[in-house]
Write a structure and sequence with these properties.
By secondary structure, this protein is α+β, with helices and mostly antiparallel strands. The protein folds into two domains: about 240 residues, Chondroitin AC/alginate lyase (Glycosyltransferase, Alpha/alpha barrel); about 220 residues, Beta-galactosidase, Chain A, domain 5, CATH 2.70.98.70. About 30% of the residues lie in helices and about 25% in strands. The strands form five sheets. An eight-stranded antiparallel beta sheet has the order 11-12-13-14-21-18-17-16, with no helix packed on it. The chain has a five-stranded antiparallel beta sheet with strand order 3-4-5-6-7, with no helix packed on it. Strands 8-15-20-19 form a four-stranded antiparallel beta sheet, with no helix packed on it. The longest helix is centred in the N-terminal third of the chain and has 21 residues. The termini are far apart.
């Protein structure tokens, strides 16, 4: 059983490289690691490295760590026994045995106890990717163990998988949280289940596996459409590189499992169910968010990024949403989810959706009036959102994108009353303002920009992954309340 390739996370016998931080298990106080963030503590218990690239060269380390985990994590104490890390660890231990690893009697007994514990604590209260991961773990355990109890695990897991796939995977193949990163994780999970069915051909009905393959093919196409030419995911909602396997690794995995490859993209692709659009003309690729922020009952990974967009030119990202470098509930996490951290319009200092704490959203924006036309060789997209209607001036934001082979025009119109508003345009760190109206690109060429209002450059930051931050620049275009409109034009 050869899963999707992940980068190694074990760099020494007890040294981990997790979310771009190096952690020594002994130095942080063992598996409970009280000084680490909750997310890093979770990651310590996943055992992702068991199935990472070149994992066989670290098999002795893996066996020792499994034995140590069993000894130092008695049932059911500590963060490692929470349902989500338990689910990922169950799957990774079983995958490891499929690649030649051997669980001794103590580890086998611990694994069975972990599954029983998980079965009693399925995360129905959280739903989403947590419950999906719980169900996947039950299916893996139900195939791996041979008993009447294991059969019950298997049937429970399969029932949940069938239900959650219908709920979580939209008609266009996108994951319902509208996060390309979480979509990639969900695709990996489904490919793992298809792989498992090949290893244990008598456990799962052929009709079920055929349905999984069809679903994986549509998910594969969605992922391909939502990536930039550099091969990595776009930064809508909680999305950065380095958490899920790379899109290239997932496509390779799907190829090995004979999941059909996606057809080449058309110049205009509308992912209607999830709400994204992909426009490609000449050397430019434009990705537009005309989507709801996510399911109403599960907005935890949503950002206030309504009508944001990302632009690549000649294979290089130019305009980007600024990404994330953390979870948690601090002020920086809230800032990174806010409208000003995206290619969005900010009205009276407010966010288009009220993001708060680490994974909460109060009143949220809803898109309306999407319209797509073609004119003189250009593709024009128009859409509005009502996120600022809650403000005293009952503002509606209307945005228009016009893409042709030589440039992009973004026009914003605000109806209602407001004191101040501005459109933010975030440059990728590799592109810098060279002079007024000129941006220097990494290939040595330039693009020109012009605005019909006051535009200023401010120093900002870009977060390409957890624990990573780079200096970047943002163009801020003021929207005068008297005319309530502004346009930025880029030419290349």
């Amino acid at each position: 059983m050869v899963p999707a390739a992940r980068k190694p996370s074990l760099v020494g016998s007890t040294q981990f490289r997790l979310l771009n931080e190096t952690i020594d298990l002994d130095a942080v106080g063992g598996w409970q690691a009280p000084g680490l963030s909750y997310l890093l503590r979770y990651n310590l218990h996943y055992f992702d490295d068991l199935n990472a690239l070149d994992s066989t060269s670290r098999r002795d380390w893996h066996a020792a760590l499994i034995a140590r985990w069993v000894t130092e994590n008695p049932p059911v104490a500590g963060v490692g026994w929470e349902p989500y890390p338990t689910s990922l660890r169950i799957v990774n231990w079983i995958k490891w045995t499929g690649g030649g690893g051997e669980l001794d009697a103590a580890a086998q007994q611990s694994l069975a106890i972990q599954v029983r514990h998980l079965r009693r604590r399925l995360e129905h209260h959280l739903l989403g990717n947590h419950l999906y991961s719980n169900a996947k773990a039950l299916v893996f355990a139900g195939c791996y163990f041979d008993s009447a109890e294991a059969q019950r695990w298997l049937q429970t897991g399969l029932t949940l998988i069938a239900r959650e796939l219908d709920v979580q995977i939209l008609a266009d193949g996108g994951h319902f949280e509208r996060s390309p990163m979480y979509h990639a994780l969900a695709l990996e999970d489904l490919l793992d289940l298809i792989n498992l069915a090949q290893v244990y051909p008598d456990c799962i009905a052929a009709q079920t596996v055929r349905g999984w393959r069809d679903r994986a093919a549509s998910m594969r196409r969605w992922l391909a459409l939502m990536c930039h030419p550099d091969g990595e995911v776009s930064h809508f909602n909680d999305s950065v590189a380095g958490v899920a396997p790379s899109p290239a690794a997932l496509h390779d995995y799907a190829d090995r499992l004979a999941v059909p490859a996606p057809a080449p993209a058309e110049p205009l692709e509308r992912l209607a169910a999830s709400g994204y659009l992909r426009l490609q003309l000449g050397e430019a690729l434009l990705l537009i968010d005309a989507a709801p922020i996510g399911p109403d009952y599960l907005p935890g990974h949503a950002h206030a990024d309504s009508l944001s967009f990302e632009l690549s030119l000649r294979g290089q990202r130019i305009l980007v949403n600024s990404g994330i470098d953390r979870y948690g509930s601090d002020a920086e996490r809230v800032r990174q989810r806010g409208s000003a951290a995206h290619n969005c319009v900010v009205v009276d200092g407010e966010d288009s959706s009220e993001v708060w704490s680490g994974f909460r959203v109060a009143r949220r924006a809803r898109p309306q009036g999407l319209k797509i036309t073609c004119e003189d060789g250009a593709i024009v997209v128009e859409c509005a959102h009502d996120g600022y209607r809650r403000l005293p001036g009952a503002v509606i934001h209307q945005r228009r994108w016009r893409l042709d082979e030589h440039g992009l025009q973004i026009s914003d119109q605000l109806s209602g009353s407001f004191i101040q508003a501005a459109a933010h345009f975030h440059l990728h760190p590799a592109s810098r303002v060279q002079a007024d109206g000129v941006v220097a690109l990494p290939d040595g060429r330039t693009i020109e920009y012009a605005a019909d209002g006051a535009v200023a450059m401010q120093e900002d930051s870009y977060q390409p992954g957890f624990g990573q931050r780079q200096a970047a620049q943002t163009l801020v275009l003021q929207i005068d309340p008297r005319c309530a409109s502004a346009t930025l034009t880029l030419r290349w």
